[in-house]
Amino acid sequence: MWSTRHLGQRVRVLVYHKRHYRAPPPLLEDLTQRGFIQDVTRPDAFENALATKVQTIYAGVDPTAKSLHIGHLIPLMCLLHFQIRGHRIIPLIGGATGRVGDPSGRLVERQLADVKQVEDNVVNLTSSIQAFFKRAYLYAGSHVSLDSNVKPEPVVRSNLDWHGSFTLLDFLQAVGVHARVNTMLNRESVRARLTSQQGLSFTEFTYQLLQAYDFYYLHKHFGCSIQVGGSDQWGNIVAGLELIGKMDPSHPNQGPSNASGVYGFTTPLLTTSTGEKFGKSAGNAVWLDSSLTSIFDFYQYFLKVTDTDVGKYLRMFTFMSIKEINELVQEHMKEPEKRRAQLRLAAEVTEMVHLKQGVKQAETMTKLMFGSDYLDLKASDVISSFKGDPRLVICSTKDITGIPVTKLAATYGLVSSNSVSRTLVASRGLYLNNQAIQDAQYKITPSNLLDNKFVILRAGKDKMLILLASN
């Protein structure tokens, strides 16, 4: 077992940044510097394997939801770092194991998943993962010199493909015969549950064998040599290495410490400076799917991270160099109120997930929501940014200029009634193009139209309405 140790200078790739190329550290060292490495088996042999031969690595995704959320970014970024350096990657969805439930890191048993829901989630997650890597690969190309032979969209697999036809008797004969119960009982995830009030079901107890067989199957059929998972997956990863050592003829009777050619490593559990699990906000996940979490809200999540967390997130979720990140954080701390580091983090991660167009959209919406100068806003950018958003309303120029602002605000849902509008005007809380309305009977004039096409009404700090003239 190993954590954060100096590694020799071996693998080199050219990375383009600010008009010059730089050679980053070897892959394992780079992942360590970025905070991805907690434990790894046989680090010296692992480093040598990465330097001398193309490897295949896999990471598992539980089909507990229909889309990826930002908590998935950690294993996905690990795979992406391997992919851009020419290694092969296998994102694996637990179409079979998702029906069982992993006891790792849990004090109570998961409720058994609905089979139809798991199947639907596998289909949706497959599309989500492919879309992520396609976009993230483009993003990485803005920082790293990419191999033109690497396919940006990996083949996503489901372990139901092999577990689905594996009968219980076959599984016991092929896998169960190699499992020692005393070893399985000593896994941390098992020990923790055995001492809990609820205990551990046989279904969950066998989970480690199912995942171990995943590693063996991928190793045998696809040449997979590496598994990465969260820190709570260490026992399952070791179980896979042990099973390969026992079932693969090329590793006869070998355990995880000396099985040749196969490796595993874990990433730390990422929490915020307040102790919350990364990706959770008041119990709500931040999704990578813009139909579940808007691009604006996705951008805002990273824009609002604390000064304590921003450096850590820049290292893990961007391809900026460590040197540039350190310089940016140092500059940021001189004037933290300007949030330079958070602005860069939000832009980088949003570009990776939603492309440059998504960054432009999020920045335009942020400017509209929180900016003070609207004069240079273009109608085309506003329309693109708020497409499908209920805050963008198309109406006639006659209505925009012929009805008092207070009535417009009530008619189009910015406030609940005309009386609320008038109360806001009295307290200087109703704004037209960021200027407080002082007359409840004021009507918009053509000179108020931004880019000659739209106006922005705001109630208080956060509620906004954009009225776009249709003619």
Your description of this structure?
- This is Tyrosine--tRNA ligase.
- The protein is of the alpha/beta class and 471 residues long.
- The protein is 44% helix and 12% strand.
- The strands form four sheets. It has a six-stranded mixed β-sheet with strand order 3-8-7-4-5-6, sandwiched between helices.
- Helix 4 packs across helix 15 (340-370), helix 10 crosses helix 11 and helix 13 (307-317) runs antiparallel to helix 14.
- The N and C termini lie far apart (69 Å).
Q: Key terms for this structure?
A:
single chain, 471 residues, alpha/beta, Rossmann fold, Structural Genomics Hypothetical 15.5 Kd Protein In mrcA-pckA Intergenic Region, Chain A, six-stranded mixed sheet, 19 helices, 44% helix, RNA binding, Tyr-tRNA-ligase_bac_1, Tyrosine--tRNA ligase, EC 6.1.1.1
Topology:
Layout: E1 15-17, E2 20-22, H1 27-33, E3 39-40, H2 43-52, E4 56-61, H3 73-84, E5 88-93, H4 115-140, E6 157-158, H5 160-163, H6 168-174, H7 181-185, H8 188-194, H9 202-205, H10 207-222, E7 226-230, H11 234-247, E8 263-267, E9 280-281, E10 284-285, H12 295-303, H13 307-317, H14 322-334, H15 340-370, H16 379-385, E11 392-395, H17 397-402, H18 405-411, H19 418-426, E12 430-432, E13 435-436, E14 454-459, E15 463-469
Parallel strand pairs: 4-5, 4-7, 5-6, 7-8, 11-15
Antiparallel strand pairs: 1-2, 3-8, 9-10, 12-13, 12-14, 14-15
Helix pairs in contact: 4-15, 10-11, 12-15, 13-14, 13-15, 15-16, 18-19
